[in-house]
Amino acid sequence: MSDIIKLPEYVKKIMTDLESKGFEVFAVGGGVRDSLLGKEPDDWDLCTSATPDEMINALKNYTTIPTGLKHGTITVKSDNRFIEITTYRSDGEYSDCRHPNNIKFVKSLEEDLKRRDFTINAFAYNQKGDIIDLFNGRQDLENKIIRCVGVPDKRFKEDALRIIRALRFAAVLGFDIESNTEKALFENINLLSEISAERILAELKKIILSSNPDIIQKYKSVFEYVFGVTLIEKDISMIGLMPKDISMGFAALFYSIEPTKTAKILKKLKMDNKSIAKIKMYLSLKGQCPHLEKSDCKRFINKCGADMVNKCIDFLSVAYKNNSKEWEETRKKINSIIENKECCSINELDISGTDIKNLGYGGRDIGDILNFLLNAVIEEEVINSKEELINFIKQHKICKI
Questions:
Q1: What residues make up the domain containing 4?
Q2: For 127-181, how does the pLDDT look when each residue is reduced to its tens digit (9 = 90+)?
Q3: CB atoms < 10 A from the CB of 31, how many?
Q4: Last residue of a domain, one of 77, 110, 143
Q5: Following DSSP, what letter does each residue of 236-280 receive, concatenated?
Q6: Which of 57, 139, 202, 248 is placed for a possible disulfide with 242 were both Cys, Cβ 3.0 to 4.6 Å?
Q7: Whose CA is closest to 13, among 107, 124, 127, 131?
């Protein structure tokens, strides 16, 4: 574990300006944690003894955004980077399992750190090089432990999202959850019903994409409560074998669940429609075999789309790992068809709906004829040229409505 914390210049500038006005200011949370782990932090948060009004006044030379004034938070732009700064505060009672009913600005850093979720997120660091660690967070970092600050049951009842956050930190960092924290986590699962679907989904995505998604198996009852379905161990174990792709990860997790039911679960979690469509497509491929005939390869391209077909093969290569070599051979055949720009979809036919309309057809017949022609081109019964396709229609004496 590193002992060196390097504050970026854009952070130090703000800290210096607040300190020059007589205020305390510390870097807190994930930036300090990640630095101690020897990682490059994605962003930095600060906390200060200054009230929001005092911060805005002290930082007049910066662009400031009042992102959460009632919670004591402003966002400051420094060298084109955005930093959240929050006034030291203590929280009142929580009635919605997510937000305090009221907050109180305080002048004590200790009071502020007491309200934080986990010991590994309760560090503070100033420009003098002091690391404030009131809850033995460094020891938990060294021992790879997720532990609540204070009483775990109270922390989870204050903000039930911390249940999923604990699992996310364990998955992303490869840590274990301390026994009392784990016990309280299980005992408060039902409080997750009070948390917005969007916030839960954001944490779930990080777990799916982490290097330890198998944590889902260890805490299966939590995830089953969230999803409302029974999860299968072999599906969970498949996630870590998939490429780091959120749609493939969720498709693996729900591999044994019917696609329509999966879509309902994900809509309830407020996942976007485009991602849900991809997941449903991956699940619709179950049972697909490699070594496809050329015509079947074209239909596979049509089903997946040329832009997605290689990802579909990636998914199937993992789902049917015994056939992975065969799928690579199939990939070569499919990519050859794409490179040669062979017709695999209605849009690639050398005839349009307007052309067919001009032949005297209308309504649903136009779509039926286009599908009929696509099948004929795929089966190499006719060349994909307008003249040949029109003659093909006439030869088969397709009736006009």
A1: 1-143
A2: 999 999 999 999 999 999 999 999 999 999 999 999 999 999 999 999 999 999 9
A3: 24
A4: 143
A5: HHHHTTS-S-HHHHHHHHTTTS-HHHHHHHHHHTT--HHHHHHHH
A6: 248
A7: 127
